[in-house]
Design brief:
The protein is of the alpha/beta class and about 475 residues long. About 25% of the residues lie in helices and about 20% in strands. It is built from eleven helices and 18 strands. The strands form five sheets. A six-stranded mixed β-sheet has the order 5-4-6-7-1-8, with helices on both faces. Strands 11-18-17-15-16-14 form a six-stranded mixed β-sheet. The chain has a two-stranded antiparallel sheet with strand order 2-3. β15, α10 and β16 form a beta-alpha-beta unit. It is elongated. The N terminus and C terminus are likely disordered.
Length: about 475
């Protein structure tokens, strides 16, 4: 929610000191957490259009698609109270004797914004209420204070709220990184969500990368300088952390970074790996966040431009039937009973769509390109993403509305350049994703012997689907002998 990074470092619990998440029981930590944002959001495509620039400067360059906007009757107090109310509803107020409100968007120079929240939540009078301020670090500073309070008296609990409305002048580098949100968390002994170990690293340096004087409603920021300050502080905090008992880099399973804009986490982690002696390529760091896991089953939802749809599986048609697909290219729906070979095959000619769609049902990713819009050099760059790579395939697809379209079952991304990083992100997120995003987990990709000739596959039919084509709901399907369970 802000872009001053003079005290911003990776932490097991958030955006301040360097710290690891405890693997076993610890004295205190986060028991519960809740979030709130403004009621409105603004797609950065509108800002790009207004400024006459390519929207991918935002979608890809800083990794953001939308910004949160507060309504006229919303501010840090209402958002903070909305987040905290969820904590109170689930946990009650017993044991809460401190409310810490962290913000760099203060509404009063003397009275803590937390006092207003105290009243809105109808908290007991026997609750001390304090506001903390430090751009990017106020929330973690409040967490550190809360840990100290709980360590002194494990019977006490601390309600921490961090809320901000980030505003920047029009036509400045900070304009697309504006936003409004709040987080509330309950700190106590023996927490359920996150136990925080005592080792920590800290760093402070007075630099003029970001500030908001009293006479201004919007902050001043030197974006490039601020990124450098963030990285310098990250390195400083890391070395201090290691000097005060912190574990080795390789012993940390997860890193959590403060993000004034989404791509900052990539820059930070690349820099930290260099400092820790395990350098990571920027592309590898960028792709890591798109690897599926139980906690993040469908990372493609983080990729700007991906569209999704729900399609039932195992609706098969005969080789002589067409399907009236609802998308071009399709990425789900009825399909031939025989799948196309998807063992990293680069088809030189367009292939029958109904066979290609069946491969998506098995967890493959299909890169389609319009040969009239992608030249030979672009085709070669796309080939490098597919050739000999299991559960991928590539083919020409004439007549598309964009040069390149990438499909998996129920997912599609259309881009203009073979160098668009979202292609690799999409493939990382969805190729053989084991979390139920495609119907037939474990389905084969090698061509069924005697049923599909990889060297001479069924040809693509560019004509409109005829009146008797199978509908998307499966009406008219009449599968052949391979029509089920494949």
């Amino acid at each position: 929610m802000s872009t001053d990074n003079t005290q911003t470092f990776p932490e097991g619990a958030g955006n301040g000191d360097a710290r690891t998440a405890a693997s076993g029981p610890a004295a205190s930590g986060i028991q519960d957490i809740a979030f709130a944002t403004g009621h409105y959001s603004f797609d950065l495509a509108h800002l790009a259009e207004k400024q006459g620039i390519d929207v991918n400067k935002y979608y890809i360059g800083i990794g953001q698609e939308k910004m949160s906007l507060p309504a006229e009757d919303e501010d840090i107090v209402t958002m903070g109270a909305a987040a905290a109310q969820r904590i109170i509803d689930r946990n009650g107020t017993d044991g809460i004797r401190t409310l810490l409100f962290a913000t760099e968007s203060g509404i009063d120079q003397s009275k803590s914004a937390g006092v207003y929240v105290h009243g809105l939540l109808d908290l007991p009078r026997e609750v001390r209420t304090i506001e903390t301020k430090m751009a990017c670090y106020g929330g973690i500073g409040a967490l550190q204070m809360a840990l100290g309070i709980v360590a002194r008296n494990p019977e006490e609990k601390v309600l921490v709220i961090a809320a901000d409305v980030a505003r920047y002048d029009l036509e400045t580098s900070g304009e697309p990184t504006q936003g409004a949100a709040a987080v509330a968390f309950l700190v106590q002994a023996d927490p359920d969500i996150l136990a925080i170990e005592p080792a920590q690293g800290v760093y402070t340096l007075d630099v003029q990368d970001f500030w908001r004087p009293n006479y201004r409603n919007t902050a001043l920021v030197d974006g490039k300088f601020s990124v450098g300050a963030y990285l310098d502080a990250l390195v400083g905090a890391w070395h201090d952390y290691r000097a005060h008992g912190g574990v080795d880099f390789d012993d940390i399973d997860w890193f959590c970074y403060h993000q004034p804009f989404t791509k900052m986490a990539v820059k930070a982690h690349v820099r930290l790996t260099e400092e820790a002696g395990t350098p990571l390529e920027k592309a590898d760091a960028a792709a890591a966040r798109f690897r599926p896991s139980p906690q993040n089953p469908d990372p493609s939802r983080q990729i700007p431009g991906v569209i999704t749809a729900d399609y039932p599986g195992q609706q098969h048609v005969r080789p002589d039937q067409r399907v009236a697909y609802d998308r071009t290219p399709p990425f789900g729906g009825p399909h031939d009973g025989i799948w196309a070979d998807c063992t990293g095959v680069v088809y030189p000619q367009p292939v029958r769509t109904e066979n290609m769609v069946h491969s998506l049902e098995h967890g493959a990713v299909w890169i389609a390109y319009d040969p009239a819009k992608v030249g030979p050099d672009g085709v070669e760059r796309l080939r490098g993403k597919v050739q000999n790579r299991p559960y991928t395939m590539m083919s020409p697809y004439p007549g598309m509305d964009r040069p390149i379209s990438v499909q998996s079952w129920g997912h599609q991304l259309k881009v203009d350049s073979p160098d668009d990083p979202r292609i690799d992100q999409f493939t990382t997120a969805l190729r053989q994703n084991p979390n139920g995003v495609y119907p037939e987990v474990g389905g084969a990709c090698q061509a069924y012997p005697g049923a599909f000739d990889t060297q001479n596959p069924p040809p693509f039919d560019p004509s409109p689907a005829p009146p008797d084509a199978v509908r998307m709901d499966g009406r008219g399907a009449n599968a052949g002998p391979m029509g089920s369970g494949q």
